[in-house]
Amino acid sequence: MQARDDIPAARIAVAPRLFGGDAAAGGAWTRQQVFFERTLLDRLADVGALVVGTGLAATPARATSAAIAYAQCCDGLLLQGGTNLARSADDLTPLDRARDAFEFALLEAFRALGKPVLGICRGLQLINVAYGGTLRDLDATEAKHHSDPPAYAAHAHRVSFSEGGRLAQLYGIAGGRVSSAHRQAVARLGDGLVVEATCEADSCIEAVRADADAFVLGVQWHPEFDHDGDGRIAGAHLLHHFVDSARDGPPRGSRPPPRSDDTTR
Q1: Class of residue 100 by CB neighbours under 10 A (exposed 0-12, middle 13-18, buried 19+)
Q2: 171-212: per-residue pLDDT in tens?
Q3: Element (H, E) at 198
Q4: Which of the following is catalytic: 145, 222, 240, 241?
Q5: Of 32, 52, 77, 162, whose CB is crowded by the most CB atoms within 10 A?
Q6: Among this protein's residues, is 200 annotated catalytic?
Q7: Any stretches that span the bilayer, and where are they (predicted)?
Q8: pLDDT tens per residue, range 10-56
């Protein structure tokens, strides 16, 4: 499925991954880096997206204002994969806290404007925590279904779509094989989220949707790892659906409605 050249590109904000720096690597790699996996950017461009890399907010205090600015000038938000997330809003495990804080702010800003959000792998987990859910680490038996580091993008397992759900309607099938690479999973489902897919092998939650939002969807697999002809469901189909929804959503420059506790009204 290819993007048409005569249709304006949808601006998709993509939050970066974070590399902490390696003193043994030499040169620029000794410093902290933010980056994007090339395959993801290529797949988004293929379906008509103009990618806008968000970077990270310099300080937590600036996260909210920066996130609102991105939400106003972009059409949709994609939260990509990466390192493990804190298991709940109260978890103090020192992971990528700067990234966590900024992505929570981005999610809130895009939701406030009613603009589509797609979470991939870690992105699904962040959506779940943002809605009040929790995460858990997969045990050794479960992990082998969901991740194989040497194989990485080639690793796959089967998922079942929830009957009548958004993914079941989008694909018109009961499920299929998907590419995954994760060692965390949903423990308690977030408030207002509904399950869109589960793993056939162990019933692990594989996709969620926010019931009250127009388009907030998270998948535990990687739709950008599309393998044509090997029996996996077409990841490009989901990405195209997301980008089309972003293009047809609220206009750029719109502002969020005032909050109930906003004293500036």
Answers
A1: buried
A2: 999 998 888 766 788 899 999 999 999 988 788 899 999 998
A3: strand 193-199
A4: 222
A5: 77
A6: no
A7: none
A8: 999 999 887 776 787 778 777 777 788 899 999 999 999 999 999 87
Write out the two tokens for 81.
Answer: 């994969």
The pTM for the full model equals 0.86
Please compute Rg for the chain using Cα positions.
18
Strand 193-199 with 205-210, pairing? antiparallel
Is the C-alpha dihedral spanning 200, 201, 207, 212 positive or negative?
A: positive
Please tell me what DSSP assigns to residue 6.
T
CATH architecture of 10-135+185-193+204-247: 3-Layer(aba) Sandwich (3.40)
Q: Which residue among 157, 224, 240, 241 is the active-site one?
A: 224
Q: Give the SS3 label for residue 54.
A: coil
121 is catalytic: yes
List helix spans (H) across 113-165: 122-130, 140-146
Considering 74, 121, 199, 204, which one is annotated as catalytic? Answer: 121
